[in-house]
Amino acid sequence: MSEVPADSTPKAKMQQQEDKSDTLQEASEDTPIHSNIKNTDDTPKDDEIVPLIDEDAIEKESNPDDDENEEQRIKYEVADFVDHEIKRVSSQLNLKDASTADPSRRLTKNNAPRLSPLNRSSKEVGDDAKLLMDEKNGRVKDSLRRSSPQHDSVVDPLSVISLDDDVAKVDALLFRASTYSVLTWIGLLIFAYWITPPEQIEWLEGTERNAALVELSILSTAVAMKHGPLFWEMNLFGSAPSLESRHRRSMIGSLRISGILAGGLVVQTIAVATMIIMVSFPVPVLIDPILKSRVHLLRWCEWTPLAGLMTLMTECIDAPEYDGEKLTQPWNKKLMVSAFESISTFCGFIFPFCDNLILWTVTMIISCVLYSTIIFRYFEKRRLFRTAKRGRSVDEIELYDRARMSLSLHGMCCVAWTGITVIYFVTSAGHLFVPLSWTLFHDPAATIIGECFMDLVAKILYMALILEAHVAAFDEAKRANRRLAELRNTMSVVWENSSDTIAISVRKASGNVTTMISPSFFQPALIARQEENIDNISAVVLEISNIDTTNRKDSITDWSKVNAKDLKGVGMRIIQKADFADIDLHSATRTNKFEPLNRNDPMSPRAISFVDMLSRAWRTKMDEIVFEHDAILQAGSSRTKFEVKLTRLEENAVVIVVRDVSERYRRFEAEKRFVFETTARQKDAEANRFTRHEVKNGLLAAIEICGNVREQVSADFNLFQKGFKHDMLISEESVASRVENVTELDRTLHEVLDIVLAETMARDVIHEMYVPRMERIDVNHILSQMRGFQAKNDQFTVVCRPSPLPIFLSDQGLFKCIHGNAIRNAIKYGKNGGNVTVEATYDSERGHFKMDVVNLPGPGHEKLMALGSRASELVFSHGTRLHKDSGLEKNSHSAGDGAWIIRKCAKILGGNVDIQFEETRTVFSFQAPVKVYDAPSRDVGTFHLPPGVWGIAIDDSKIQRKLLRRFFIHAGIQENRQVILGHNRDEISGFVEFIIDFVKRHPDDLIFLIADENLEMEGSAISDHETISGSECIKRIRSELDLSQERRMLALVRSANDSPDDLALYNSRAHGYMPKVPL
Fold it and tell me: What is the pLDDT of residue 360?
């Protein structure tokens, strides 16, 4: 067998929960606790994204709302306590027969707190429950300390060990002691017959037999009358067994009979059996050599083991002591006192064999001394009991009753056994001191008459007290019921005020299921039903037929699909607070008390939903399980999600806690969307940065190389046209073809660059990170572009009003994106080869621009018209496509987001877009407010920097350095006043020092400085590779120069990365930013 870890046993888990509860209580006395509970179990799982909210793993920040945090703290402390109490009680609960038990005391609202944590909506409710528990724990602790005043520890004893453990130990000890007593009695019987001479084994006759017969009759009758009803109640006779008792044992030694009751039965059984032997068989009778009285050895064979057993039972009933760490019993003292009583009694067996007076006297002295220990023990208990007080909680009452009954038993034993001792001396030695006229004392039967009388009195009194002790402190079912009743009183506020729904469900012998549900689940329906006195409703009870329970297997309840047949097997009853205590879930319930469900009742959708949850709960065989259930409570409404936790108390009784987690799921979905969008935004930002830097730089370099090649080829072509012969045998047609190919390559590279820029801009637009860049744009030029598609002759028409349109101040990228998507969609989804017309209008009075892209109807146009106004909404929805990709000259595929993106672009410009599917055409419209670019006109072609300006630039790319040189020339800086750096590692690493020195060596010159942002320095090894920031270099340069020196310098950062964050960084370090664009 595999070993079970110590902390995995139920007891160990209970101990851990108790320790956790103690920690919470101790901490609450010193500092406020902000509880963070994570339902592990309670969170939806996603294969791609882990939700941010995990109630078992995330450490939340402190909430400034102290009241809310205090409510959460109290909430979980109460739940931990109740969870422990329910586990402790339900683990030992033995239900009785339905006809005799009172199930409402066992299966009521107190079972509900089995699910932890409870989410109550009232702080005052939690305060009251916590105060009740703290008060109870303090009283029990004080009771234990009074019973053991030598200890003053502050540890809560109930957090270490419960009274159940002590009861279990007492039961186990008394079961063993009872067994040993029976064996000892049998052994003494055999020994008595063996040691007695045959001639002294005789039949009892006359008065002796009658005395024994009278005791036998009275004692056996009393035993039957006292124990018969108790056994009948416990169903030990097997008559009319309940459904629950069929699965339980009912023999002595099982948990159905306590050790106290078993010991009492053994005492009475041995006494009755001894009387039967004395009446029905010859018995050994000896003559005391000193007192000359008749000694019946069987009487001492009976009393010897029973004296020890009865003393031990009296000791074990007493309340346990608290040693500062745990509850203990002074077992050694108890066993020693019990042994002394047995030895003292056994001396009566020895007296007939003492031949001389000295030996007899010594034996008598030993017997009396040993017997006196019980008297001293009585006064010790009496002294301790004077400090005890009867409390109000179950544990306090049980402790007090055990101490009281133990003291009573001790007193009874002292009186009765002292009486037996007195009667022994009177009947055995009285004839030695009284005259013969006192015939009773000289009658040989006097001893047995006195013994039978006192033994009968002692046995009957002892039996009554033992039964009282069993019922008050050791009857398992009654102890469990009392504790559940206490929990019911303590947690009544939780049942009625918890926002979680608590249900107690039992299955009867017929298979029908009766379920009591707290009113919180039906509160919306009760309000809709306009139920009067909703506050007085304590529960709703559902009666569900067996067939209806087993046939339901769905994990979702859709009220629109529920038919009349589904409602027949369910009955409902509303319970008022006045009737709540009398509910008996196990007893047969009259059907006429339940009202049938109907479709017009607002309660019916929730009732059917709960029936489906119950059906799933009853089908499981596990003791604890958590599952989810969805419900659509109204036609067309969204799903309501419930989390259901099942705790099985026994074979046919379960506690179910239902929590509406719809809000939590919506929160989870929002969190997941946030995580998804944040992750996508981060990834797209990284992709944009890579695209802008690597791809854009590569395209710009390729465009520059293509420009150089085109210039060379164009020069050769001009030579051919002028009549010059080339050294190589190249025809004029071949050179013309090369010029055309290079031109096509240059156009393609520019288109690819536009696509890359549009793609990066679209990512920022999607994530609402894009900041519009207002610049001079020529809308006439933008509208003339086909955006990558070849139009047929006269297919594409542009109409401008006025013509040409003025130059606007707006965002060129957004305009290109809107126009490009509109043109592409018109060509792709309109009539193949049909005309596409772009109508652009500018209203100067309103400052309003409008663009219509009109195309002829394409495939599926009739279906789009049938959708009406909803078609426009669908077109601009995220991820929606109403057409299939058409086979055009270019292979393309649409994800359905183009229209959605251009709507976002339009909103950024302060405008909007729309589309109308008319009978003869499709019209896409874009309109937005614009401003006319009113800056003074400049002749860019003739602009030059002032003479004498130095142009200094640094870039790690050879192509870019050539481009910068051309740029300086176009800006009017002569080659002899240009300094282009970045050829090697030394020039890059020494750039700052070079510029500072250059400025100081030219105190009267102006300097135009351009630095590439990402300057890569290559080394001989990979580890030597390093990248430095050009803007950071400019920052260092500016910090080293004084104000007059910096005034003579214009320092710009040149980079392909032009996101808002990058631009803000560049402007903070340098004087400005210069984009990387083709010349």
Answer: 92
Extract the tokens encoding 189.
Answer: 């019987």
What is the model's pLDDT at position 49? Answer: 31
Burial 112-134 (b: 16+ CB within 10 A, else e): bbbbbbbbbeeeebbebbbebbe
Compute the mean pLDDT over every residue in the chain, rounded to the nearest whole number: 75
The whole-angstrom separation of Cα 583 and Cα 540 is 11
User: CB of 580 within 8 A of CB of 516?
Assistant: no
* 692 pLDDT higher than 70: no
Q: Among all chains, which residue has been given the structure tokens 């067998």?
A: 1
**Do the Cβ atoms of 71 and 126 come closer than 8 Å?**
yes
pLDDT tens digits, 207-249? 889 998 998 999 899 888 888 777 776 655 444 333 333 333 3
Length of the chain, in residues: 1079
Pairing of strands 949-954, 1006-1012: parallel
- Give helix 732-766 / helix 898-908 axis angle, nearest 10°: 70
User: Number of helices and strands (H, E) in the chain?
Assistant: 32, 29
Give the Å distances, CA to CA, from 1079 to 112, 705, 962.
79, 12, 12
Provide the 3-class DSSP secondary structure of residue 312: helix
Residue 388 in contact with residue 143, Cβ under 8 Å? Answer: yes
486-516 residues labelled b (16+ CB within 10 A) or e (exposed): bbbebbbbbbbbbebbbbbbbbbeeebbbbb
Residue-level pLDDT at 489 = 62
**Which H or E run contains 540?**
strand 537-544
d(CA 557, CA 551): 14
Rg (CA), the chain: 50
For residue 636, the tally of other CB atoms under 10 A from its CB is 6
Instruction: Give per-residue burial for 575-585: e unless 16+ CB within 10 Å, then b.
Output: beeeebeebbb
Which residue in the block uniquely carries the two structure tokens 């010193």?
30
Tokens of 329: 């019993």
| Cis amide bond preceding 802, omega within 30 | yes
Query: Where does 153-210 show beta strands of DSSP type E?
Result: 201-202
Could you say which DSSP state residue 138 is in? Answer: H
* The pLDDT value given to residue 177: 93
Least confident among 230-239, 334-343, 875-884, 1033-1042:
230-239
- How many Å separate Cα 135 from the centre of its chain? 30
More confident residue, 717 or 698: 698
Q: Which residues of 972-992 are buried (b: 16+ CB within 10 A; e: fewer)?
A: ebeeebbebbbeebebbeebb
Concatenating the DSSP letter of every residue in 687-743 gives HHHHIIIIIHHHHHHHHHHHHHHHHHHHHHHHHHHHTPPPSS---HHHHHHHHHHHH
